[in-house]
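Worked example 3. Consider a protein that binds magnesium ion.
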Amino acid sequence: MNRPHPNADVRMRGFVSRATVDEALAWLNGQVQTLPAEKIALSDAVGRVLAVDVVSQFDVPGFDRAMMDGYAVVAADTQGASPYNPLPLTVLGTALPGQPFLGSVAPGQAVRVMTGAPMPDGADAVLPAEVTELDGPRLIAQADVPPGRHVGFQAEDIRRNALLLPAGRELRPQDLGVLSSVGVAEVSVVRRPTVRIVATGNELLPAGSAPHGYHITDANTPMLRALAVRDGGQMLSAEIVPDQRERILAAIRQPCDVLLVSGGSSVGQEDHVPTLVAEHGELAIHGIAMRPSSPTGLGKLGPALVMLLPGNPVSCLCAYDFFAGRAIRMLGGRNPDWPYRRARLPLARKLVSTVGRVDYARVTLAGGQIEPVSISGASVLSSTTRADGFVIVPGDSEGYAAGSAVEVFLYD
Ligand code: AMP
Ligand code: MG
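Given these inputs, the predicted complex is written out as structure tokens:
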């Protein structure tokens, strides 16, 4: 593995050797552990990751209840009832949701029930209102019902002591509904990894400003922020700093779980970040055999994971997706794998790659085929906007022939 000597100034000497993507991922996997749990209100828990199994303390529903508007009856009593064989019943009273009927139902009797009302004692089925008629005080049943018909039984939805949701579950809106139904007000979730973005470059203007002169507007901060939020990160700050050692050091020393530094990650004269990380922490990986993003670095500053992402926006996106996104998802207890849908489709043209490095090739889809985007430059951010997704060509591959079926990751 490519481990620079601490304090080594690698600037302007080029990368002597590059780590493989697998080596970089192995280092990362060794560093990252799921963060500890925290308790939060259920109402804030959508999208969060459950830290523990949730077991229901209750049956849902907690009682047998009517599932239709109609009449609670003794099912056996109704056998043979039809429009030609009407069965008269005496209505004893009414049960409403939240308001039980306190008596008991015997053959020849019925209790009016609304959907959700507790089933009265003695009744074991609901005769829907549509198959009855009222004849003065008498109810006329015109159909029969088997036992249990239109009754929702205690615990048929959720049984007490049953596993409701497993640890690791990314909570969906309907999960919050289920948790609430068993009386859960607070949930134990994995703490969100905190993220800071430091965009380096004397040439950078703040996101949203019009580019002018020899300045360019920061493209990486808005992109990285959205990516980090997508992966469950909690943004603490994002700032632009000029290419000055002291300014960069002050910015990267702010505490967080994951520090995303954009720009200045390579071996140029203005690339201070690798040296600073090596001096003040650990620069474990610097230079990775991949394209784009070869000037990527991974390291630690105190407890923070530091991702040295190339300033070229395409490289920045690619390096984020290969390493930083994975780390943020793992810290947050999420699936580390690519967060993109996959498809296997034939290539419209050949896709060439160099043996010895991993390629992240932007592609479009047309007519069920994969079309490589011809721009290869890492600086062409619009190539990722034009692309529908990307194909990863492994390090040991020269690429793929036209017509071969390959796996494509889709941005949407
Ligand atoms: P660097 O990685 O700092 O050597 O930058 C490589 C290229 O990416 C240069 O052309 C920079 O101007 C450009 N660049 C650096 N940071 C950003 C950024 N935040 N947004 C857009 N382009 C950038
Ligand atoms: Mg720069």
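Take a moment to read the result before moving on. The CA atoms of residues 82 and 143 lie 4 Å apart. The helical segments are 21-31, 173-181, 220-230, 245-252, 273-280, 313-331, 382-386.
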